[in-house]
Specification:
Elements (H helix, E strand, L loop, with lengths): L7 E6 L11 E3 L4 E10 L15 E15 L6 H8 E7 L6 E7 L8 E8 L6 E19 L5 E8 L1 E3 L21 E5 L2 E3 L8 E3 L2 E2 L3 E9 L25 E9 L4 H8 L3 E8 L15 E11 L13 E8 L10 E6 L5
Antiparallel strand pairs: 1-2, 1-7, 3-4, 4-9, 5-6, 6-20, 7-8, 8-9, 8-10, 8-15, 11-14, 11-17, 12-13, 15-16, 16-19, 17-18, 18-19, 18-20
Length: 346
């Protein structure tokens, strides 16, 4: 017997685009995928036929897509990061139980494709039904950190098609998996940035520790193309989605306590932004310092947008600051996402 809460969402990397594989990683997330069937209506007419004719309404294409919003946790999230960015390394941190993953933007097209399966319960606890989406490719990710809340990420997926004949995979989850929260977060703007290595986090010496930030978000878009519907495909996409013009943007809401960020905006000089979240359960000790599960977003070259502070009717003044990250010289990375975890594999 099952209840309505007994659904599961599993995922695994594909060897060949659009060929289903059994899910190996499971996430505590809703299953919000859809399979759209396109039809077109013939425009020819006949006398006395004033209503669209059924035999002139034909299939045109199948389009599948999904949205996955997840509370970012300390185990298993690396697979999602690799799906979005494309390149990743994983290195053991000294003698600890921790591994540091460093995710960067791939320069090779296409990104990897994945099978994502949702196993959904019937009402009344009778059985479970698997909906399996193949050829899933990550079109982007959006991180959102708000005061007093859990760090979340929303991944936008494009898929080849939905299958209903793939056996449901039995879900399994990590024994230990904590959440990253606003409480364990900090943001540093500007300073002398040292980018992350395979085992060291990024450090911004002399940067502005912006303690007045009450919310922050970072979004990465891969701008995947939506073509590949060719003759012989039966209305289904025949190839992986191609990478487009990527963009990295974000927003901050900041209480107006000084003019530091205003002056950075007015000067229009590029600065770095380092957004770090740490959990409180140690991954082990290497004899010098505890290693904590960590998610760190590093943007080396950023321009601030927005406006100057304005009055707020007697309430505390808050500034909405938009920003965009840039590729400076074609060799330095425009974004690093570092993930410290007990996972031995991405």
């Amino acid at each position: 017997m099952t209840t309505q809460i007994d659904y599961s969402v599993g995922m695994s990397a594909e060897t060949a685009y659009g060929t289903a594989v059994a899910p190996s990683r499971f996430f505590e997330t809703e299953f919000k995928f859809k399979n759209s069937i396109g039809r077109v209506q013939g425009k020819g007419t006949r006398p006395t036929r004033s209503v669209n004719r059924l035999n002139r309404n034909v299939l045109s294409r199948y389009e599948a897509s999904g949205e996955q919003e997840i509370e970012v946790n300390t185990s298993g999230f690396g697979m999602l990061l690799k799906a979005v960015l494309g390149d990743a390394t994983s290195t053991k941190i000294g003698t600890t139980n921790g591994y540091q993953q460093v995710h960067t933007l791939t320069k090779n097209d296409p990104l990897g494709s994945y099978t994502i399966q949702g196993v959904l319960p019937y009402l009344g606890g009778v059985s479970l039904s698997p909906h399996t989406f193949v050829g899933c490719m990550a079109n982007g990710i959006a991180f959102d950190a708000k005061e007093g809340e859990i760090l979340t990420a929303k991944i936008d997926w494009l898929a080849k098609e939905m299958l209903t004949n793939v056996a449901p995979a039995a879900a399994s989850y990590p024994a230990v998996s904590d959440l990253f929260t606003f409480t364990g977060g900090e943001i540093v703007i500007g300073g002398n940035l040292t980018v992350p290595t395979t085992t060291a986090l990024a450090v911004s010496a002399g940067g502005l520790a912006a303690g007045a930030v009450v919310s922050a978000s970072v979004s990465l878009s891969n701008d995947l193309d939506k073509g590949g519907y060719n003759l012989g495909g039966g209305g289904k996409r025949m190839r992986p989605n191609a990478l487009g013009h990527r963009s990295i943007t974000g927003k901050m809401k900041v209480e107006y306590t000084n003019d530091d960020l205003r002056d950075v905006y007015l000067a229009q000089t590029d600065v770095s932004i380092v957004l770090t979240f740490k959990s409180f359960r140690s991954l082990g000790n290497d004899g010098t310092a505890a290693v904590l599960p960590t998610l760190q977003i590093v943007l080396p070259y950023v321009l601030l947008k927005g406006d100057v502070p304005q009055s707020n009717g007697g309430a505390p003044i808050e500034i909405d600051i938009d920003f965009e990250a840039f590729d400076k010289d074609g060799t330095a990375q425009p974004i690093y996402i570092v993930y410290r975890t007990a996972d031995t594999a991405i």
